[in-house]
Design brief:
Layout lengths: L5 E5 L4 H13 L7 E5 L3 H17 L5 E5 L2 H4 L5 E4 L5 H13 L12 H24 L4 E4 L4 H11 L3 E4 L4 H11 L1 H4 L13 H17 E8 L2 E9 L7 H8 L8 H10 L7 H4 L13 H4 L7 H19 L16 H10 L3 E9 L12 E9 L2 E4 L7 H23 L2 H9 L7 H14 L9
Helix pairs in contact: 1-2, 1-14, 2-14, 4-5, 5-6, 5-16, 6-16, 7-9, 16-17, 17-18
Length: 460
């Protein structure tokens, strides 16, 4: 299959894209000579990212043809690949979603799972479904990479609504390597305090990725499940092939009790280690959501620090402006783990037959005890034909049951949005494991829809 050597990035006007994904693209030899079309409705930010791209293009001699437009229909014709990263008032609405559920004594991360994921999905689908229509009309053979959360539900909508090959990309598997770093810290020569815990701070993020990189050099995880809710099925030494899983139970006893205590408790109960960390794990299980029981606090779940997120974005923009003003050089950009969409494009374009450890795509028998064609996350082989998942077999049945409930909620969310049926919203809230009272299911659904009436068409 031939894919045109044109990449369109919708939602390009972000400092994170410019400082991470764009940097990765320019340094990948296999993407040199591609056409890169940048799209964003914020013309000022788009202009800055375009200037940064041209500066990078020159430095790394990438020979890319770079264009930009606020109108995606100008950019999409001829595209072989489309990256999608869009959001509406990200931190402010995220916090509103979280606080609204708190009024009903529901404590949750409010992004990918739980009742807030419904409204988060609907806000984004209002933007994304018209984009899917344009892709089908203007570049129907393109591969779409979704970088927008909730990835699981966005990819479910794309599968339901279009024939576009849609792949969800997410870096969360690195948190599994971070966890392995704590488990095998002595063998790897890593040092952590006895009361070490993850926190959303600059140091916390640096610890996460620095540790993950070190562990990835030595160990390999095979994980599967659904996005932000995957499970270590196998852990191997990359050099010897030794199965390390039998050691995890013993080493778990030596973990700092303050480090991801919910993940530790889940492992103790089910004998399988979750990958995503407590914040995301808590989006799919009911144990921490009852504010009256205060289990969220007892397990020390780390809610995303909105002010930190805003500050990091402003710091990113300051760095972009300083580079454009020649106050600092491009070498000041430090590459962190991207979502890896650019690496997958490189593999498809150049038929490299590479292995990706985690990719979100329809289940073609890859996980045998989850519904066929439901959206799952598994390892995948990349070639010129796109992505083919690796068959991992069965998940442990209790874990599969957790996943099946979420898959049903994902499907109902998409159908509720497409049909604008309030009754479907009541039903999907009534089966959500975080909601214990059917009256709360109705009242919270109504309040979310009312609060978001400026972003979501009316539900009848």
């Amino acid at each position: 299959m031939f894919h045109k050597k044109k990449i369109v990035v919708i939602g390009a006007g972000s400092a994170e894209f410019g400082c991470v994904t764009l940097l990765g693209m320019m340094q990948l030899q296999g993407l040199h000579g591609f056409e890169l079309a940048l799209v964003d409705i914020d013309k000022e930010r788009l202009e800055a990212i375009t200037a940064l791209a041209r500066k990078m293009n020159q430095k790394w001699q990438a020979d890319m043809k770079i264009t930009s437009s606020a109108d995606r229909t100008e950019a999409l014709p001829g595209a072989g690949y489309v990256m999608l990263s869009v959001a509406i008032e990200r931190e402010d609405l995220w916090m509103l979603d979280h606080e609204t559920a708190l009024k009903y004594d529901i404590t949750h991360f409010a992004e990918n799972g739980g009742p807030a994921a419904f409204v988060h999905t609907c806000r984004n689908l209002g933007i994304i479904l018209p984009i899917l229509q344009d892709i089908e009309e203007l570049c129907p053979g393109a591969v779409l990479f979704d970088l927008t959360n909730p990835t699981q539900r966005i990819c479910t909508a794309a599968r339901s609504f279009s024939k576009i090959q849609t792949l969800g990309v997410c870096h969360q598997i690195t948190f599994g390597y971070y966890l392995l770093g704590l488990l095998f810290r002595k063998e790897l020569g890593l040092s952590f305090p006895d009361n070490y815990r993850f926190v959303w701070t600059d140091q916390g993020i640096e610890d996460w990725f620095t540790t993950a990189y070190a562990v990835m050099e030595r160990f390999e995880i095979k994980a599967a499940g659904i996005n932000h809710f995957t499970w270590m099925l196998d852990v191997r030494d990359r050099n010897t092939g030794e199965d390390l899983y039998p050691q995890i139970a013993e080493k778990r006893k030596q973990l700092p009790p303050t480090f991801e205590p919910l993940s530790q408790k889940i492992f103790d109960i089910f004998g399988i280690m979750p990958v995503s960390g407590d914040s995301h794990l808590g989006e799919y299980v009911p144990y921490t959501s009852d504010a009256r029981e205060k289990t969220w606090h007892r397990y020390d779940i780390q809610f995303y620090d909105m002010e930190w997120g805003k500050r990091k974005r402003e710091e990113g923009w300051k760095l972009v402006r300083d580079i454009l003003d020649d106050k600092v050089g491009l070498d000041s950009l430090s590459f962190v783990y991207s979502e890896r969409a650019e690496h997958i494009i490189d593999s498809i374009a150049n038929n490299r037959y590479t292995y990706e450890e985690a990719l979100v795509l329809p289940n073609k028998g890859y996980i045998t005890n989850l519904p066929r064609d439901s959206i799952v996350e598994v390892p995948a082989i990349i070639s010129t034909d796109g992505a083919t998942g690796v068959v991992v077999g069965e998940l442990p049945e209790p874990i599969a049951e957790f996943c099946r409930r979420q898959i049903t909620i994902n499907e109902m969310t998409v159908q509720a949005f497409l049909k604008r049926e309030r009754k479907l919203v009541y039903q999907l809230f009534a089966i959500d494991p975080m909601i214990q009272d059917p009256e709360v299911a109705i009242r919270l659904a109504d309040e979310y829809l009312e609060l978001n009436k400026n972003y979501i068409p009316e539900f009848c």
